Amino acid sequence: MAVVVPDDVLQATRMTEDEIRQELAVALFQRDKLTLAQAAQLAGMDRLQFQHLLASRRIPVHYDIEDFEDDMAALRDAGRV
Length: 81
Description:
The protein has 81 residues and is mainly α. The chain has helices at 7-13, 17-30, 36-43, 47-56, 65-77. It is built from 5 helices and no strands.
């Protein structure tokens, strides 16, 4: 599913599509709607970059069992475990 952000909204916010995507990812991560991995993917960043973004905003990283399981699944899919 694609989300379309109208040009007038982008102009009103003075943000790029990438910035809007990052803001959405941060907001959903803060509300525990996305895991760190999911939020990073939505933001178009790797997890370390997304963690730096969170740190720059003083947003704590919560890493729980679900995050760990997502990481393990990603490693299995990549053939590293």
